[in-house]
Amino acid sequence: MADRSEDEQLDVIKRWWKENGTSLIAGAALAAAGVFGWNAWQDYQAGKAEAASVRYQQLVSLAAGNELEGDQLSEAREMVDEIVSEHDDTLYAELALLLDARLAVQQDELDSAVESLTQVAESSSRRYVQSLAWLRLARLAITNEDPERALELLDEPITESLAAQQANVRGDAHMALGQNDQARNAWQDALELAQQQDQPLYGVQFKLDDLGAEETAQ
Description:
Oligomer: single chain
Largest sheet: none
Helix content: over 70%
Order of helices and strands: HHHHHHHHH
Radius of gyration: 30 Å
Distance between the termini: 120 Å
Shape: elongated
Structural class: mainly alpha
C-alpha cells in the first residue's frame, strides 16, 4: 500500500508538472527577460547620457573663448541641433539651447535666441536652468527695447540663488524706462543679495555711481 501510495503521489506530481510546468518555465523565462531588458534599458540610457555629455563638451570646447565666426559658428549651431534632436530629454539639450541663444545673438538673430530660451523656460523641469532662461529672455527684451516685457519675465518663479541677478536685470529694465528711483532700489537690492549669497556681481556699483553722477549734473 505504501508503494502504491508513493506511486500515486509520483503520478500526481507528474500530471501537475505536465499541466503547469510549461507555464512555469515560460514565466521564469519572462522574468529573466524582464531583468535582462531592464538592465539593457539602463545600459542604453547610460550610454545615451554619456554620448550627450561628450557631444556637449565638444560644443563647449568649440564655443569657448572668442566669438565664433563663419564655419565654426555654423558648426556649433549644427551641434546644438544634433544634441537637442538626439538627446532632447537630457540636461545637455537644455544647456545646449542656452548656449545656442548666445550664438544666435552673435549672428544678430535675436528672434532665434528668444525661441531657444523660450523652449527651455517653458519646458525645463530644472528650476535653476529654467530661471537662467527667464533672466536671459528679460535681458533680450531690454535689448529689443521692450523693458515692460522684461519686467513681466522677471516676475516668473526665478530661483532664490539667482535673486541678485534678477534684481540687477530689474534695475536695467527700470533704467530703460527712465524710472531712476526704481532702478537705484533694484541695483541696491542686487548688491545686498550678492553680498548675502557671497556671489560676485560685477558692474552694478558702476551703474549706481553713474546714476548718482547724472542726477548731480542735473
